[in-house]
Amino acid sequence: MSANTELAVVPPQETALAVYSKEKGLEPWLQQIRTKIDGFTPDISTRKGREAIASMAYAVARSKTALDDVGKKLVADLKEVPKKIDAERKRVRDTLEAWQEEVRRPLNEWQAIEDARVDKHNAAIERIRFQSMDLDGITAEDLADRLVQLEAISLGKHWEEFEAEAARAKDKALGVLRAALTTRQQYEAEQQELARLRAEKEARDKKDNEDRIAREAAERATREAEEKARRERDVEAQRVRDEQAAAEKRENYLKLAAAESERKAEQAKREQLEAEQKAERDRLAAIENQKAAVEQAKKDEEARQKAAANEILRQQQAREADTKHKASINRAALEAFIAGGMPEACAKQAVTLIAQRKIPAIAISY
Fold this sequence. Notes:
The protein has 7 helices and no strands.
């Protein structure tokens, strides 16, 4: 048989999940491959031996791919399980929610009718109470209309369990409206009397005001004539002062414009110098930052390479220590068999079979 046929072996599909999910579950398959490798003794000096080595290495690679592919398929299949579980959970939730709504629908419909009935009575009671609210500024006529409307509201069985509450609200509202009507009627009578007195006073004040206006008109005409003559004199004097001020203003403007132009030129020079200095500082800072970044990247790469080399060395040392440890235990077992009277060849065979887990219920503890 070829090395490829011997080594490309995988666990049966029906037991694959149990094998791969168990810690070191693939160890028997690895030991089978290890046994084939240990028993492989080609002659490197011959072409046939070298081809056999290449074939064996290819067979190991094929075994690696075959074992990994089985695990990869198991992982892909397991990833579909949560999706199927979630889909079933959603279906159950939706179904039970629909059934819950179906079962509760008669109660909800009854509750809606009951709420509407209660709301209707409460709204009617609120309308009764509203008749006696916000009475500020309402006329006696409007209050009387409210009393008539309120007294016209009939009480009886059609109020159901709200009849007593409606009766209390009506009695209270009637009391408030009647008291308000009495107060308002008294207030409106007082206001009518005050209006009459105000009208008489306004008539007297109007006549006094007309007499005052006539006197003030005569006095104002005299003052206006005098004021007109004074203004004409002031206008001429102001004209002369304005001409002098305009000349001074033009001269001052020219001086200020020249000074401002000189100031702006100096400021432009300063700003240009500052911009050039800042640009140079920024250029030098960018060079320093780039140097620091390159140096840091170099340090990071050296640290990464050192860590990788340390990890490779650690793994190699761990493998060598594990191999020495197992060899020591196997050697102790071999010596125990020989001490027990077993021939050395048989003892070696026994240790090998046990180490390869080919003897049921017997194992070497490493």
